[in-house]
Each structure stands twice: as C-alpha cells, then as structure tokens.
Amino acid sequence: MKKLLYILLVSLLIASCKKEPKTVYVSYKIIETSANSPTYTVGYSLADGTTKSIGGLTSSKWVSDKITDVERGKYVSLSVEGNGGGAYEMYIYINGQLDSKRIAGDGFGKQTLTIQIQN
Prior knowledge:
It is built from one helix and nine strands. The chain is mainly beta and 119 residues long.
C-alpha cells in the first residue's frame, strides 16, 4: 500500500512540473470607430523584434497575420497613426486570447500599445 501511495505521489509531482512552452503566438487588430474615413498607418512587432509598418489603410478593421514563435519575456507593440479625425481601438492577442486593449485617436501623433509577454 505504501508503494502504491509513493508511486501516486511521484506521478502527481511529475505531472505538476509540466513546463510552459517557450514561445507564444501574437496577433494584432485595429478597429476604426469614427464616422470619418481617415487614412492610417499601423506598425507592429514581429517575432524577431523588428517592426513591420503598413500605411495608407482606410478600412474600418485591420487584422495582422498570426506572428508565431514570439519568445516569452519579450516586448511586443502595436501602433497607429492617422489623419482625418479617426478614432481607433487597438488590440493585442496572445495565443488567441485578448491580452490588452487601448483607445486612440488622430491629433495626438503616433499612439502605441506595448506589452511584455508573460513568462
């Protein structure tokens, strides 16, 4: 009986020591919410730490591709800069779950949302 209890205890300890994956995937979204039709530029972090920029956007919604293999502990950011009286909702998703949100608007220069991926 003691042996069985010992085996069960060791099994539980091993099962509880599962490590989190070292990387996550990130995606970004911008929703333009004003009645205007502003032109705006989006910038966002890639897995290697560089930033990609896409300009001349006029749609009411922009969504990035999935950015895979982003290391835990790294910082990622999303920025928007527009003209024409736009209002924006900025979203950062980690592994498909909403992590952070920010409201932004034209007239204040580039607006940025930055987070650190949790370890």
